[in-house]
Amino acid sequence: MRNKKVKNLLMVSMSVATLASSMPVSAFAASAQPEDTASDKNNVTVVQSTEKEDSATEQKSIQTVQEAPKTKEEASQRLTDADKKVTETKASYDEASAKKDIAQKNLDDANKKAEAAQKELESTISDAKNEIQSLKVQAQKDFDAAQEAVSNAEQALTDAKKDAEDKASEMETAKQEQSDAEAELKEAEDKAGTDIDDRLASAKAAADQAKGELDKADQELSEAQTANDTAKKNLEDAKTIQANAEKALSDAETAKTSADSEVDEAKKNVDTAQAVVDALSTNLEDNVEYQKAKADVEAAKNVYDQKVEAQNKAAEDVDAAKNELKQANDQTDAAQAALEKEENNISVAQKKLADAESAKDVADRELTSARNAAADAQAADTDAQNVLDAKKKAKTDADAKLQDAKNAKAEADQVVADAQAALEAAQKAYDEAAQKKSDGAYAFLDESAITYLENCKYSDANVKGEAKNATSMDSIKEGIQWIKECNKLRADNGLEPLMITDDLMAMAEADTNWSSQHLGHAQQFNVGENLSWGYRDPFDGWYTEEKAEYDSGNIAGAGHYLNIIDPSYKYTGFAVCRKAGTKYGVVHGQVFQYSTESKAYTVEEYEKRFNDYCYALDHADEAVTAAQDKLTQAKNDRDAKATAVSNAQNAVNQAAKEVTDAENAKTATAQEIVKADQNVSAKQAVVNQAAADVKEKQAEMDQAQNMRDHAKAALDTAKQRVIDKTQALSQTQNVFTAKEKETSDAKATYDKAQDVLAQFSTDLETAVANLKTAQATLDEKTASAKEAGTFLTNAKSALDAANADVVTATNTADQAAITLEDKQSKQVDKKSVYDQAASVYEKENALKENVNAAAKKVQDTKDNYTAAVNALNDAKQKVTDCEAALSTAKDNVSVVQEKLNAANALSYDDIYENGAKGDFAYLNGKISAVKTAEQDLDAAKGAIAPAETAYQIALTEYDSAKKAYTLALAEQAEAKSYYDAFNKISKKEDAGKTPSGSNNSASGSQNGNGVSSASNTTLTSKAPKTSDTAQPAGWAGVFAAGLTALGAAVFARKKER
């Protein structure tokens, strides 16, 4: 704010200076006049009295106004100096301004840091208080939640117990169902018999084998039926051909009979014609030429008849050869057909053999596959057995781990119980610690020793809790140290150290308490005793002084000394009494004893026991904390062990399930072995049958091949016969051709002889012609008869072949019928065998399925029982967990109750002063943050004063530089005014002069040094145009004085602030 006001004032001063540059002097003076009024006089005085440099500068400025330059050169020099001064003061001013701005920024930053530190402090205090309040609220919430958790845990325990009862009932139900299922399984197994698997496998194999044989019988029956149907059709076709052949034979016989009849008729006609010729020839019997011609005719006829007969014989041979060739061709065709049939039979047999071999290969592969499957099943069964063994071992291990976990849980429960007892004991010890400190020996000594304090003759001298009496803790502690000194003295005399018993300590305390009020021995106990009153060190009297007496021969005056060095004394007790009213202020008492039935300690053991006891009392709170920590740790360990039990139980349950699964898997693999073995047996039976089929089909193939070979041989024979018969036909045809020519030649000779004979008589000629005609008819009819004979022979051959085919077809049909009947009979037998085997298999399989169903039911009920057992175990474990959770919840209520009480006792001021402990120690971090914030705030506040001082120094330097700069500007303006005035005078003087070669046109724009005078134009102006040449100097002085006064006002206001 201060800086802002200064800046505003500077802006006003600059605007006033700017305005003054364009106003008359009187107007500027008037505007500056209020700065010199009485109201600001003191301020101005202060500035002038405290700023000597400023006053000197002001005086110099005034003096400058009064001493105007006398020449233009002087004015030019003054302007040059003023420009230089402006430059120098401007640099100083800029530097001071920059330092002031930096100081201002540092001051602002310091103020901001202080404000931020203040806010941070307030924030950290608020945060700490809010944290304390939040902690209280949270502690209350935790307490409420802990109580609710107890309620929930109690309800959960009730629910868990109810669920456990339900699960126990469900387990019993499941157990009964398992028992019932096992009884059903036993009944089913008894009905099935122990060898059911073997019987079932055998029945299956027998049924499969019977089915295979039945399928084969069905196939063979089908083939036999087809063959029978074909044979019947072939027989019918053969009979039809036979009937046609019989009809053709009958027709041929009729034609042959008719032809023979016509031949006989023709022969008769020839004989008649011959008789006519013979009759006519009779008349010419005497004629020699006639007789010769007749003889020639007779001879030619004989030859001709012979030739005809030979030709006929040759023709018959040709027909016979043709017939034989036809028969050979027919036989060849039949042999070819038979061969083709046998080849077809071979093809059929080959296909059957190939099918059988293929079936055998398939059966072999299936058998191999079945054996592999059986091996796999056996391997799987072995693996399953291994898995089962592993799972059983895992179950055993899991049971052992569960038992270990339960043992560990039981041990953890005991540790928790022990820790709880230890905590209670520690808490009790903590609660009793102050009282035990007050009770002193009454709390430290064992009970038998305390009876000496309580039941001695002067027991009223023993006041429990009385300050500084012999039973106090300080007395016991000091007594132990005196016993150390006693043992040191005994050691100096070569004696063993005395041991301490609680009984002797109690006797020493009882006697010393009494002797604190009486100068003498109480004589309450049968012990040796040393007493002293008022000694700082009792051994000074008992040992040092009396040793001197003893050494001097005064044995009677050395009783204490003698007690100390008595080698028969083994045990001791020591007491010190400084209670109020003690004679001579202090009593030391030491008792000695030869033997003891009490527990004895070395001094070191006794001191350690006492120190440990004291330490436990002094650090009882730490013992409580440690016990609480141990209890917490024990509970955490118990919870972990409970979790381990739960996990182990889950592992056991899982292992049991896996054993069950493995047993099921083993049962399944065992069943698979049975199935696989059955399948192997069945496949072996199929293989055996297939092998038998292959053997049978091979025999059929061999038979077919043998028949084919016979048929081929028969065809070859038939073909050779055809060749032979063809050659024979060719030969007979050649013979017939020759005979035919011979007959033709004989006929010509005969005709020629007849023609010669016919010349002897016309009637004879006619008769001969008739004879020739009759003979030609006879020849024609003979040829027709011969052709009819051929037809008859062929018809007979065809009939014979047809009859043979009928016989063959009949035989084939009969054989096919016999085969069909045999196959039908076999199929019926195979069907009966299969039906019986299937029936046996169905019965055995039904028994096995009943066993399997019963076994599955047993397994299901076993699984249900296992699940029920697991569920019951889970429910029992949940009860255990709920009981543990309830115990933990109840324990937690006590813990959170203590924490709530402690939290409610917290206060910010108390923690700030004394700090927080225990669970709330982290709040010390909050308080530490508050204290740190306070330190930061103090540091920030401490940085403001140096920053303020630095700023004031910078501001002073700034004001001084600004004032110097302002005065330099005023001097520059004054110098400029003088210089401008001289320039105007020079111009007027030169107005009427002629230039002499010099150029003066720029004289008004340059000063004597050639430096421009146009800088700071806001503070320069032209002087009023008057005839008073002194006016510029006077106006400039007033202007400078006004600026000086304005600057003084600025500094005066700064001091005021």
Structure description:
The protein is mainly α and 1057 residues long. Helices cover 83% and strands 2% of the residues. The chain is built from 19 helices and five strands. It has a five-stranded mixed β-sheet with strand order 2-4-3-1-5, with helices on both faces. The longest helix has 152 residues, at 288-439. Mean pLDDT is 83; it is low at 1-66 and 994-1057.
SSE layout and pairings?
Elements: H1 2-20, H2 25-32, H3 41-50, H4 52-66, H5 72-192, H6 196-282, H7 288-439, H8 441-444, H9 447-455, H10 473-492, E1 499-501, H11 502-515, E2 528-533, H12 538-552, H13 559-565, E3 571-577, E4 587-593, E5 600-601, H14 603-618, H15 620-758, H16 762-904, H17 908-914, H18 923-989, H19 1031-1056
Parallel strand pairs: 1-3
Antiparallel strand pairs: 1-5, 2-4, 3-4
Helix pairs in contact: 1-19, 2-19, 3-19, 4-18, 4-19, 5-16, 5-18, 6-15, 6-16, 7-14, 7-15, 7-16, 9-11, 10-14, 12-13, 15-16, 18-19
Key words describing this protein structure:
1057 residues, 5-stranded mixed sheet, 19 helices, 5 strands, 83% helix
Radius of gyration: 80 Å
Number of helices: 19
* Biggest sheet details: 5 strands, mixed
What is the arithmetic mean of pLDDT? Answer: 83
Shape: elongated
**Termini separation:** 11 Å
Strand order, largest beta sheet: 2-4-3-1-5
Structural class: mainly alpha
Tell me the helix content.
over 70%
Instruction: Determine the strand fraction and express it as a percent band.
Output: under 5%
Work out the number of β strands. 5
Low-pLDDT segments, ≥5 res: 1-66, 994-1057
In sequence order, what are the helices and strands, one letter per element? HHHHHHHHHHEHEHHEEEHHHHHH
